Amino acid sequence: MSERQNSLIDRASARISGTLYGLSGGLMGLQPIREGVLPVNLGSYDYARSTSANAKLQGLDQTLVWVVVALLIWGMVMVYSASIALPDSPKFARYAQTHFVLRHIISIGVGFAVALLAFQVPIEKWEKVARPFFVVSLILLLAVLIPHIGKDVNGARRWISLGVMNFQPSEFAKLAVIIYASDYMVRKMDVKERFFRAVLPIGTAVALAGILLLAEPDMGAFMVIAIIAMGILFLGGVNARMFFLILAVLVFIFAMIIMTSEWRRERIFAYLDPWDQKHALGKGYQLSHSLIAIGRGEIFGVGLGGSVEKLHWLPEAHTDFLLAVIGEEFGLVGVLCVISAFLWLSRRIMVIGRQAIQLDRVFAGLVAQGVGIWIGFQSFINMGVNLGALPTKGLTLPLMSYGGSAILLNMVAIAIVLRIDVENKQMMRGGRE
Fold this sequence. Notes:
Structural class: mainly alpha
Largest sheet: 3 strands, antiparallel
Strand content: under 5%
Number of helices: 16
Distance between the termini: 50 Å
Number of strands: 3
Strand order of the largest sheet: 1-2-3
Number of domains: 2
Helix content: 55-70%
């Protein structure tokens, strides 16, 4: 073999070795080989610093983020549309036309800042503070009942004034129950088949929160919290027999609450026949005007800003009955878009929770699914009320209706779900990034 042939073989061997070494270096955190450049082992700190920002950005569920952003922006536009005429009423005469939308924008801004902070917190930290978090929620629910601390609006004491926004402890309690119930199920996993050891303690905790909520009164929030806790128990592995027993107990409790409250019974009768002369100007007034608004919208609506019902006919148009204004201004198409968005959002959050459980991250999975139950159930109740399918209940449309603390806690809950999703993806990549 000639000297030239030997030289070519040696050069080819060197290139093959360099390529293989470069590939292995890329896998092991080494800098890829370039001709004339020696392989250098990057330190773990340098690697993390160079890739962490991109990894977090790529790890985010972009579709989920954009759906949430779209709902927030659409909600902001509709809050302005629904509240722009309120200053014409003597009750709101001292407010500017932009009063409610500006406060809503501030709430979104504060919610975004707090959500960013919540996203930075590892899920294991939430698990460690689950019990203190729930105790704080009970203290706030108790504090709102104290005169000069709780703010009375329309006969209900549900808010604590913080100046730029009114804080509603019941919204905080919803998130606290999700975190506490998820932690509780992880701790009680070995006794989840025993009613008195698995279900009774969490039932007592939820009942305590329910008593404080009913004292406000806020039956709607109590209903949401009860459904969240029951859903987490079921998803956590409580058997079907025990689940239906809990469901029967809840139905009995809510039936007794309605039967012993005259004004709640009137709401039920008004829901059954809102057009009756007795109900049309009483407990069925909101429902009848909500149905009129949605009927006026027909298929494509009367156009943004063209609603008539928001002109002091439909009470709480910017909060509980925002969907009715959407139906009037955007028609059936607009309502279906909102329903589709919340259906997709709830399903996606549940999928993230299921992925976490499959990765043996039970607490994280139950938290995500608890948020999915919260968003899905509350939006279902609000939509049902606006469409006349359910009795009138004071629950806002998540992420869209006016309400500072509701927007704030909704955004924090979504941030926690995004954090769970990012941690899921990191685990599936082998824990790197």
